[in-house]
Amino acid sequence: MNLRKILIFSVACFIGVGLVPLQAQQVTMTLSESITYALENNIDVKNAQLETLISRATIGEQRSQGLPQINSTLELTKNVQPPLIILPAEAGSVIGGGGGDGGGNGGGAPPPDDTPSDITVIPFAVNFQSSLTTTVEQMIFNGSYFVGLKAAKTLKELTDYDKEKAELDVTEAVKKAYFTVLVNEERSRLVAANMERLDQLLEETTALFEEGFVEKLDVSRIRVQLNNLQTDYDKATTATEVSKYLLKIQMGMPLELELVLEESLQEYSNDDNGFYSTLEAEMLNRVEISQLEKNIELATLDLKNNQVQYIPNFSAFGTYQRVTGAQDFGNVFQADRWFSTSFVGLRLTIPIFDGLRKSYVIQSNRLQIKQLENAKFNTIQNIKLEEYQAKATLKNSLKALEVQKENRVLAKEVFDMTNIKYQEGVGSNLEVVEADAALKEAETNYYAALYDALIAKVDLEKALGILK
Description:
By secondary structure, the chain is an alpha+beta fold. It has 2 domains: 26-64 and 142-310 and 355-464, Outer membrane efflux proteins (OEP); 71-140 and 315-349, no CATH class. Helix content is 62%, strand content 14%. It has helices spanning 3-19, 31-41, 43-64, 89-95, 143-210, 216-251, 275-279, 287-307, 357-423, 429-464, and strands at 26-29, 69-78, 84-88, 119-123, 128-141, 258-261, 313-326, 339-349. The chain has a 4-stranded antiparallel β-sheet with strand order 2-5-7-8, with no helix packed on it. Strands 1-6 form a two-stranded parallel ribbon. Helix 5 (143-210) runs antiparallel to helix 8 and helix 5 packs antiparallel against helix 10. It is elongated.
């Protein structure tokens, strides 16, 4: 094999490998694992966690205002046209200046000779000036600071409740999406099992038709039923894939991963799954109430903050400064040209009149607090209604589940008996097809009722504040 053939073969192998599709990574999860994954990866939960970190930083920001505030400033100034002092002419002979307006001659140059004779113009600055200033200010008393510090801590507590609420919402969404996938998978399985039964029946009926024992109508009837089932199967399969996509989005899982649910809907039909114990559970404190209480507390602190604006603020301050100046830039930073100044003091700021602005703000705060209290009362009433409705819905769902469970057993008995009669030649295939369709409907109705009961249980757990 020459070099050209070797290259062609290598390229062909490379292209062939590239055309082989990569198998998507498969992830198998239970409901509990799905919830745990969602609480770590869901975007809303991540943002709520970040909000708690932001609130912690806000506490530090508020606390820093009570610490000493220290600033330094370094300045270098070139006086292009130095400031001037205009004095009476007789003062010039004493000070040693000259007359003139100083226009255009900077850097301390003597004023022109054509200035009026009754005045003396003296430059007030040298060409170059520099200063290094350090200021220190310490708050001694400020009512807003202490209220703000408490408000920042309350905000941190509110963001903790917001994070808890986000986790509960995600848990609810994941549970419902998980059950949706299970019921769609079960529907696909039921339709597939039904198609398998009809396939076998079609094969037997076709053999009987070929032997002249049944009519062609019997074969066609089964084929029509199979075609309808194929359409149902396609719909159920598509619904399963769509519901899996929704579940992965709720979990924060990459869509390209293949998610396999480890559990099946049948596992939730083995016992009551805590349905009746949930009905008897007592309501715990709902996070929505805690959120409103913290909002009321924040609004109350805002009211206090505006009230303390009437109280004087007290602080201490100090400034230390080093200054220098020179006619030539090269002499500015000589050590013997730097001189020090400093001062300290106390500052008392007394609010006197602001046009009644604070009074109106305080009125607005009180009305906002009243609004939040009304919202809290209304939320409590809605939670009670939500609990009542959720319990009633779960009770009705459990009753419907019992009925569908019995119908499923009866439909299975009818199908078995009809099939036996057909096998023994004392029944028609029409009866078998009808019994099979009735069994499929009974099984579908049963799992739909089970799904409704599971969703109703999740809603009740949320209403009672015990969702986890």
